[in-house]
């Protein structure tokens, strides 16, 4: 079992960051790796158990199920259902917390998964850097642009 | 039930910050409001259930009991046994989380307690901005801003 934890501080209030992240179907609007996304069966994106089917820019298709969504904790969890990438039993958790003495946001993104031994290093790098770190950077840029708009 | 939540970012690795906070008898070494502290009955400061008896710079005396301590999750939970604050059921947790981009630490300090309704606002302010933020400000200075 591989565990990854990445975290950062975003220079915006938790409400602004949460408004962006809360939409389980909205990652195609902020994550650079995601080309397009849709919730299956016409369900709403904040209905627990809903499934998002999305395509990465390289064309691969993935399905993920929403397992937890909390407006109180500003947190959500999801798992991968189908993927062409060798990530097995992938479960991820996102949580936000306010930095009360400077109106910023602590954002933690963690997961656990297993994969083929020969691909552990590459899968770890891909999730940590291409998904999590790239997601942090994209949200940071986007909120900075909004702030100046 | 009144609740206090204060959080900050400290410019130091979480293991270094934890090394300082882990010592349940170590408040005088980092918190500017605390003059002296001792653990009762000669017990070690990382024995769950031990009691610290400490004195603030203004002379107030407080006794607190260690309820939980984790070197894995980097948190310390304690309750007030005796204080001049007139609070009941006071339980607080000080928790650190690593910030992976930049070797910094996210620190959270929470407390829950009961008190007379008319004192709630004042107590939340004095605990939050005074004790907790005062401690965080000192830690931030000690770790270089």
Structure keywords:
heterodimer, A: 149 residues, alpha+beta, seven-stranded antiparallel beta sheet, 42% strand, globular, B: 145 residues, 3 helices, 24% helix, 43% strand
Provide the structure class of chain B.
Answer: alpha+beta
Shape of chain A: globular
Q: Describe the main β-sheet of chain A briefly.
A: 7 strands, antiparallel
- Tell me the distance between the termini of chain B: 34 Å
Mean pLDDT of chain B: 96
Helical residues, percent of chain A: 10-25%
DSSP helix count of chain A? 2
Question: Low-confidence runs of chain B (pLDDT<50, min 5 residues)?
Answer: none
* Order of secondary-structure elements of chain A: EHEEEEEEH
Structural class of chain A: alpha+beta
Range of helix content of chain B: 10-25%
Number of DSSP helical runs of chain B: 3
Distance between the termini of chain A: 44 Å
Strand content of chain B: 35-45%
Task: Summarize the structure in words.
The complex is a heterodimer of chains A (149) and B (145). Chain A has 149 residues and is of the alpha+beta class. In chain A, 25% of the residues lie in helices and 42% in strands. Chain A has helices at residues 14-21, 120-148, and strands at residues 2-10, 34-39, 51-56, 61-70, 75-82, 88-99, 104-114. Chain A has a 7-stranded antiparallel beta sheet, covered by helices on one side. The termini of chain A are far apart. With 145 residues, chain B is α+β, with helices and mostly antiparallel strands. Chain B has helices at 14-21, 27-30, 120-142, and strands spanning 2-10, 34-39, 51-56, 61-70, 75-82, 88-99, 104-114. The chains are: A alpha+beta (149), B alpha+beta (145). Chain A binds chain B through residues 5-9, 97-102, 104, 106, 108, 133, 136, and chain B through 5-9, 97-102, 104, 106, 108, 133, 136.
